[in-house]
Q: What sequence folds into this?
């Protein structure tokens, strides 16, 4: 599952290019006509553009002529897209608008007389946006985005994306492991207080906190939340008395890292929304971020972080979010540890490809949990993966 190229190729065809909605951008990344962002769905290069009428387009980043990458910059603003190889030019919606030397030169050469620009545009994807998150799909059959996400996930996307945002910065984390190990990690509240010493010791997250791990009806997406306000020092000391990740002897030389603001009336201080297949929407303390999974092969993927705040944040709130992002992002303790966890699994399973994991915490089913000691959402992920990719056929 984590090392075989056959699974990886099947995922690209049946999952990323199948009946799924994939996150591609924040609307705030392409606010103006002509803005573009190049990114990936699985390992397929795509370009997100903002057209003159403010509409959004997503096209495959591959020239219809000879297959070259059309858009080579990550972001920018252009009047149209143009392939550097032979200067084939495309409208922002992907329509082919011009071909150099189409009629030849001095009556010689050129394209055949029946060449039709309309037949040679970039491959266009379906696009939908939800409160500033932009998704695209190759599928003409998959249900509309909010139906795909379901009411629970849509509600909590709207909770975080509750008003206009501003981009605070991007970070990229290259991880030498299979992307599905990270899909497991972000559906796994069980590991968080045991792996992440900082989380547990300083009370950002503990499995003893009030929280739940819930899924949409299809079990493909998950919503994990907790409330740091429910910490109980006596109970936590008892539960974690033998745990290396709970060490009350530690203190911070600069406690301002944890000096944030309460900003959601429901008291929830940590949310991990895992949207199948390639997005994690995060609120941890005052950090807000999207994490996009970009696959590079069966044993490597990239995690593209975009940290954001709200457009009406004051300067102090901007500073709080930026400081806390140093804890959460790839340069901080949390994601660095998650990346290391993925890599030590990848290293161990690569030498014994027939071994199996044992995932049963919480009862062994894809069940919602009103606590944080469960692996139920991981099982939900695998049920959907099996249905789309077909584990049995490929194993046999």
A:
């Amino acid at each position: 599952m984590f090392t075989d190229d056959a699974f990886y190729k099947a995922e690209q065809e049946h999952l990323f290019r199948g009946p799924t909605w994939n996150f591609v951008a924040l609307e705030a990344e392409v606010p103006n006509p002509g803005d573009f962002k190049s990114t990936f769905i699985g390992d397929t290069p795509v370009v997100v553009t903002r057209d003159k009428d403010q509409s959004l387009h997503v096209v495959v980043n591959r020239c219809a002529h000879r297959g070259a990458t059309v858009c080579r910059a990550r972001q920018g603003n252009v009047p149209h897209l143009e392939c550097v190889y032979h200067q084939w030019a495309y409208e922002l919606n992907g329509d082919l608008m011009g071909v150099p030397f189409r009629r030849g030169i001095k009556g010689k050469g050129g394209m055949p007389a029946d060449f039709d620009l309309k037949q040679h545009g970039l491959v266009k994807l379906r696009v939908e946006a939800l409160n500033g998150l932009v998704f695209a799909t190759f599928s003409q059959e998959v249900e509309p985005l909010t139906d795909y996400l379901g009411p629970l996930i849509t509600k909590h996307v709207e909770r975080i994306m509750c008003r206009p945002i501003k981009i605070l910065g991007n970070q990229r984390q290259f991880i030498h492991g299979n992307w599905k190990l990270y899909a497991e990690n972000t559906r796994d509240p069980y590991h968080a207080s045991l792996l992440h010493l900082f989380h547990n010791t300083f009370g950002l997250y503990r499995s003893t906190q009030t929280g739940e791990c819930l899924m949409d009806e299809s079990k493909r997406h998950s919503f994990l939340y907790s409330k740091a306000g429910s910490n109980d020092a006596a109970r936590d000391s008892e539960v974690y008395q033998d745990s290396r990740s709970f060490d009350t002897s530690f203190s911070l030389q600069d406690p301002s890292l944890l000096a944030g603001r309460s900003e959601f009336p429901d008291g929830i201080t940590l949310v991990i929304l895992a949207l199948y297949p390639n997005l994690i929407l995060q609120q941890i303390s005052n950090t807000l971020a999207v994490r996009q999974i970009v696959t590079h092969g069966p044993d490597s993927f990239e995690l593209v972080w975009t940290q954001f705040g709200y457009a009406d944040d004051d300067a102090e709130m901007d500073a709080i979010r930026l400081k806390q992002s140093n804890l959460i992002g790839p340069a901080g303790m949390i994601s660095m540890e998650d990346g290391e966890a993925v890599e030590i699994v990848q290293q161990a399973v690569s030498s014994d490809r027939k071994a199996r994991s044992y995932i049963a915490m919480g009862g062994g089913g894809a069940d919602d949990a009103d606590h944080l000691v469960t692996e139920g959402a991981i099982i939900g992920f695998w049920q959907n993966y099996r249905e789309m990719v077909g584990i049995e056929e490929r194993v046999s």
Observations:
- The two ends are 13 Å apart (CA to CA).
- The chain has two domains: 19-131, 163-389.
- The longest helix spans residues 333-349.
- The chain has a mean pLDDT of 95.
